[in-house]
Amino acid sequence: MDEIAGYNIQRWKALVRVNALFTRPDWTLDAASARAKLDPEGRLGEIVGKAVLCLAGGGGQQSAAFALLGARVTVLDLSEEQLQGDRQAANHYKVSIQTQQGDMRDLSRFPAHSFDLVWQPYSLNFVPEARQVFREVAQVLRPGGRYQFSCANPFVSGLMASDWTGDGYPLKHPYQEGAVVSYPDPIWVAESREAVPWTREYRHTLSALINGLIGQDFVIQHVSDYTDFHPDPAATPGTWDHFTAIVPPWLNFWAAYQPPVSELGNQR
Ligand SMILES: C[S@@+](CC[C@H](N)C(=O)[O-])C[C@H]1O[C@@H](n2cnc3c(N)ncnc32)[C@H](O)[C@@H]1O
Questions:
Q1: How far is the CA of 163 from the centre of ligand 1 (A)?
Q2: Residue nearest atom 8 of ligand 1, based on CA coordinates
Q3: Which of 42, 161, 173, 219 has its CA 20 to 30 Å from the CA of residue 68?
Q4: DSSP per position, 148-181
Q5: E strand or H helix at 200, and its extent?
Q6: Per the confidence metrics, is the pTM higher than 0.90?
Q7: Cα separation of 171 and 204, whole Å?
Q8: Using an 8 Å Cβ cutoff, are 190 and 196 in contact?
Q9: pLDDT tens digit sequence for 190-246
């Protein structure tokens, strides 16, 4: 394990201890709400019986939602504490979920081309090379399989609502692939920040994301900067609703793995 993984293991252990937002299993799901929460834009399609990998997606939210929709779910995450949340959610809903402790940068434990869908909630920015993750995802997706991931909007990554100056939210970090962006969690993520190491993220520029996908034979199907929040330019400046109206924080990508016919059958 390298220092990057070690840092995140410690950080997520602390976030689970303080009951941070992304560490709380979702106890409110049924099949209808599971689909609405996973897929507000209606792009998922039929998922019953499909093999889904929730990549760096521990915590007991998405894994339980996919299982309730009838998918065969594996969740891989670096944090044992986060995976515990997936197991608790699976018990609660009486569904079956496979949990695997591991790093998104190495998926060699899985048979080649064994998943129909790789679903990666916000986590790509926790590693310095998006390309490395795309390569691994391409190895485990079946041809035609799909990859959905969320990541930081690279143009504004590192800005926070509290950066309001009275006149705007100033850009101040270099726009550079792999540049470290580190900041304390906002209060809506973790009310208690006691002993929680700052998030340490890596900027992935738009060209690195798009060219990285193309380089691994992904066809980009849809990109969205809409996520499930309520941007409001009329809200009080410095609030989350105002901030997100000016500074869209996240991007979602849908891509399909479409290797040339000559590459089909290539195994690791
Ligand atoms: C923001 S959470 C995303 C998952 C959460 N289910 C959600 O609702 O958004 C980010 C997750 O990435 C995991 N993580 C960070 N670095 C990782 C790595 N290198 N490999 C695998 N998981 C990683 C963390 O342990 C954490 O569970």
A1: 26
A2: 22
A3: 219
A4: EEEEE-TTTTT--GGG--SS-----S---TT-EE
A5: strand 199-202
A6: yes
A7: 16
A8: yes
A9: 777 678 889 999 999 999 999 999 999 999 999 999 766 789 999 999 999 999 999
Domains of the chain: 3-263 (3.40.50.150)
Integer Cα distance of 37 and 13 in angstroms: 25
Instruction: Name the residue of 74, 123, 124, 200 whose CB sits within 8 Å of the most ligand 1 atoms, as the mutation to test its pocket.
Output: 123
- For 139-162, b where at least 16 C-beta lie within 10 A, e where not — what string? bbbebebbbbbbbbebebbbbbbe
* 25 alpha carbon – ligand 1 mean position (Å): 13
Interval between CA 12 and ligand 1 midpoint (Å): 8
Q: Which residues pair with 181 in a beta bridge?
A: 201
How many angstroms separate the alpha carbon of residue 234 from the centre of ligand 1? 33
Residues lining ligand 1, CB < 6 A?
5, 8, 12, 22, 56-59, 61-62, 77-79, 82, 103-105, 121-123, 126-127
